[in-house]
Amino acid sequence: MNKLTYIPLLLLFTIGSGCTKDNFDDTDFLNTGTAPTGEAVHFNITDDNSGLVTITPNSAGATAYDIYFGDATTEPVRVLPGQSTTHIYKEGTYPVKVIASGITGQKAETTKQLAVTFRAPESLTITANANLHDLTLSAAALYATGGYKVYFGDAANEVPVLIAEGAHVTHTYAKAGKYQVKVEALSGGAAITTATKEVTIYNALTLPMTFEQPDVSYAWGDFGGSLTTVIPNPYPGGINSSATVGKIIKTKDQTWAGNFISMSSPIDFTGNKKFRVKVYSWRPGLRILLQLERSGDNTFMENMEAVTTKANTWEELTFDFSGKITDNNKKLQNILFFLDNGTQGDGSQNYTILFDDIVLTN
Question: Please, how many CA atoms are within 13 Å of residue 154, restricted to the half-sphere of its CB?
Answer without folding.
Answer: 17
